Here is the input.
Amino acid sequence: MRRARRPARSRWPAVRLGDPAVGIWLAALGVTLLGWVIVDARGGAFMTQGNVTGILQNCVALGLIALGQTVVILTGSLDLSVAYLASLGTLVAAETMAGQDGNVVTAVIAVLALSAAVGLANGLIVTGLKVNAFIATLGVAFILRGWIEDNYSGPAGSVPVTFQRLGYDRIGPVPVSVFLLAAVALALWLILRRARLGHHMYATGGDAHAARLSGVRTGRTVVAAHVLCSLCVGVAALFLAARFGAGSPWAGTEARYDLESIAAVVLGGTVLAGGRGGVVGTLGGVAVLAVLDSVFNQLSVDPFFKNVLRGVVIIAAVALYARRRRSVRRSA
Here is the structure.
């Protein structure tokens, strides 16, 4: 008898509607369509080239920081210093460039080196001193805040016009900076899904004790995650410096990138306890927040009510994910 042939496996992974990453992108599409209808019904114009470009530009800085936040949260850690590091990064970039094209490379290296040093400090405090990540990174945030407030009272430095093109140039309605976000997202996706370090991050966040018994050096993994997170913040700082044309002491704190990045990660389905999630869902969470901001701004929604609605959306999403996980466990 001939053996029945097994169906050929597709090279592409099957799309699961129950996957939080798929769900958040469907939610982003739904929010976009609903916002389009509501804004146009109120006499506005939502799907214009200018508005689409604005939404995409608003995704870049938050997206870069949220991608870094995803990496540390996957290991079961957290980083609350990202907002002040982004502010300090813009200042270092603008002052080092000093309006000269010849200083751009030096400025980029300086910002990334500073970011890596802060990430290394965060990781060593968490793993070496055994300080809770919330407290450790909050303490580092206060240190950065003290340095900024003691040395700056307003914008400083100057970014050359050629570097500012990173913040303003576009191809059609798509800003050039979106390709920078896509490149960083792809690099992190490859690390998390294809590299040993990424597997160790998931293992550390899922069960640190079991990971150690399996030979994973969890301490080094957490430190590496914090360094990667801070490097993403450094890239975001360079983009913000290009947007502003100068360094801004309030670039990160006014946009509340610390809490906003965590909100985007949680919306994307990454579990705060670690071990589950990824960059695809985080980008979907960033898209939802950017679209909501655009809709609220066009409808002139009161800032207090806007924050209430954003909070309700985040709580509802997390509650939905938790309910799905409970139903999956029961069925198993």
Remarks:
- The CA atoms of residues 75 and 205 lie 4 Å apart.
